[in-house]
Amino acid sequence: MCYRCKSFQSVKRNEICRIPGCSVSPSAPGTPTPVRLPQFQGETFKQFINYVYTGKIVLQDNGVFEMLTLAQELGVDDLQNSCEEHVTSTMSVLNACTFLAAAIDIQDRASTGGKGAKSFVDRCVSFIGENAAKCVKTNSFLNLPKESLIKLISSDCLALEEEDVWRAVVNWAKFHAGVVQRTAHWTEEERARVCQHLSGVINHVRLLLIDSQVFAEEVEPTGAVPIEMSLERYRYAALPNKFKEMSDDQRLQPRVMLKFFSGSHILSQDKTHLQRVLNQWYGGVKQCWRLVYRASTDGFSAESFHRHCDGISPTYVLVLGVNGWLCGGFSDVPWGKSHTKSAYMVS
């Protein structure tokens, strides 16, 4: 234990290692002292002990974050690295939602706040956001706990139109309610069960952005939306300019769609939200852009740049520095020798 666990290496033989969140029960002299770790599952700790003595472990998707947190708290670096590598190398459309639920669960239970799990929560949300159209069709999405679903659909980077966010949420609620019929064929009991699961969830769907026809044909018939919210939706449709004054209202902010800057490696993961910022600066929140030049593949020379970009406008130029800083510029005239007072640099 002392060899593998850094948390034990500075503990004297007559001391009890106080792991964060543990409890130590008194015991008679000469008998083992019980040290309880209620935040971890017994089966997980058995696997951990087996790793300590054998150096071998088989990691499971739904338990990897609990093992990761245990490895962090006890200072087992090799096991921590194995857990991180497992998540990084195996995350896919099929299991990303399973990873998300497991990471959120251990983040809530971990005594230290689950700092390691939190970074993976963000990573899972980012991955699912980028692959949302496929992820919401998986069984792992349907099996998400409500808390995990809310975390996901609260993200600005969920690459779905709001109508599709609603449809995914309804499918999730139907799955948990055991309802298979279409909305028009629900019984009152089925409607009540679906609405019960949607309670607390629909507040995170940006209903004001849903198309009016879809709202009337798919949203209202569920009976899940309070009348006050429906009235506000119709007021927004009738007076959109008035609502523009509420620019800080999250319900009026379109989600960032990866198709806005299709092919961009820079505006992805933790920088995906910048797509919306650039479109707001441009003046079209749903403007789609195409990639015309990437220095890392097309060449870093000025000749290569102009060969790909001359004659094209408007354009954004994005540059990612070695330290992670992002800078760039905008031009509304074709590349060449022309100049414009409207061009500016951003960073």
TrEMBL record:
PROSITE patterns in the record: TLDC (PS51886)
Domain TLDc, chain residue ranges per copy: 265-347
Name listed for the protein in its UniProt record: BTB/POZ domain-containing protein 19
Domain of life: Eukaryota
UniProt xrefs under SUPFAM superfamilies: POZ domain
Family annotation (Gene3D superfamilies): 1.25.40.420, Potassium Channel Kv1.1, Chain A
